[in-house]
Amino acid sequence: MTHGIGGSSRVDELAELLPWPDPAPPIDQSERAARIEQARELLADSAADALLIGAGPSLLYFAGIGWGASERLVAMLLPRRGAPIVICPAFELGTLEAELAVDAEVRLWEEDESPFALVASAARDRGIAVLAMDPGLAYAHVDAVREAAPSLQLLNGAPVVNGCRMRKSPAELALMRQAKQMTLEVHRRAARILSEGISASEVRAFIDEAHRALGAAGSSFCIVQFGRSTAFPHGLPGECWLREGDFVLIDTGCTVKGYHSDITRTYVFGKADDEQRRFWDLEKAAQKAAFDAVRPGVACEEVDAAARRVLEAAGLGPGYRLPGLPHRTGHGIGLAIHEPAYLVRGDRTPLAPGMCFSNEPMIVVPERFGIRLEDHFHVTDEGAAWFTEPSPSIDAPFG
């Protein structure tokens, strides 16, 4: 049996888990103020007078409001000068006041009123002629603003939003490190409860419980695949059960103060055969090549190319052909689990210190198996630094 796989139980593993002993501090008010000033500088560069930020990760980033987007507009109008204006349903005022983490004017709308008329009037009051729109806003909301304020020139606010969010501060890195370390501990525990015949849904339930035991609000997502199912990057519908000699692929994460983890481990339940070892070692080499390619100023696509060169030299691919790597090598991560920039051909964004990415150059052998080793790194002045150490070997995937 692979070292660290099986031999324990759900009850025993959960009994040993306690809330995280040294939680990272939350983002403070001074950091949010600095974010707003940076956004204002980027607005000036884009010739926009203000940015409209919708509910979702960006509203959490700038204002501390952790609400998901819905058909009701909740947004913050951030002008280049003057206090921000938060537009919110009137019945949500109490909840808003409990979460709002910046000084802002609040304008409320009743259920029979138009929040987009409030956006239009706020823009008139602040002399806004050019409005940058949060790229996360629904098209229906963008179109409604256009209809309510036809004289406004609307721009894509991605250069402002991404320009702020792509490079993480030390406080953000600490929150992300905690989330990822928590998830890696959950991975270790999940591997120990495996036994022949266990179902994927049983493992998913344990992973959610384990994340909660460590202090997260459960798993933010969880993919558990055995055997042939691992050949499909995000699995197959329906249940599956573990058999001796199967590859096990588990991809899961949680959030800490909104910041995501997203870690994948692949290993064999039982004894790995020669083919499984060869492909697992090749996956690890591709992951290392991607990591080694990271330097400030290097284009994102070059990291993807480095991983693919390893795989293509071994006869896989080329490109996205199978057997080989069917998707990008990695994605940005932070308050969204997938966010710009991306480690993929065509993304020429230069790497810079503070940028954070997954590193997951998955190998798929169609109809047979898939192997994904996913860890995350942040860019430093010298290269890259892991948040969590990669899996060391197929025989001891957790060391």
Task: Give the SSE layout.
Blueprint lengths: L9 H6 L13 H18 L3 E5 L2 H7 L11 E5 L5 E5 L3 H7 L5 E5 L5 H11 L4 E4 L5 H10 L4 E4 L1 H8 L4 H23 L7 H14 L7 E6 L20 E7 L1 E2 L2 E2 L2 E6 L5 H19 L7 H14 L16 E3 L6 E5 L12 E4 L3 E3 L3 E3 L3 E5 L4 E3 L13
Parallel strand pairs: 1-5, 3-4, 5-6
Antiparallel strand pairs: 1-2, 2-3, 7-8, 8-11, 9-10, 12-13, 14-17, 15-16, 17-18
How would you describe the overall organization of this protein?
The chain is of the alpha+beta class and 399 residues long. It is built from 11 helices and 18 strands. It has helices at 10-15, 29-46, 57-63, 93-99, 115-125, 139-148, 158-165, 170-192, 200-213, 274-292, 300-313; strands at residues 50-54, 75-79, 85-89, 105-109, 130-133, 153-156, 221-226, 247-253, 255-256, 259-260, 263-268, 330-332, 339-343, 356-359, 363-365, 369-371, 375-379, 384-386. The strands form 6 sheets. Strands 4-3-2-1-5-6 form a 6-stranded mixed β-sheet. A 3-stranded antiparallel β-sheet has the order 7-8-11. Strand 15 (363-365) and strand 16 form a beta hairpin. Helix 2 (29-46) runs antiparallel to helix 7 (158-165), helix 5 crosses helix 6 and helix 8 crosses helix 9 (200-213). The longest helix has 23 residues, at 170-192. It is globular. The mean pLDDT is 97.
What labels describe this entry?
399 residues; 3-stranded antiparallel sheet; 11 helices; 19% strand
Helix content: 25-40%
Give the tally of β-strands: 18
Q: Pairing-aware structural class of the strands and helices?
A: alpha+beta
- Number of helical elements: 11
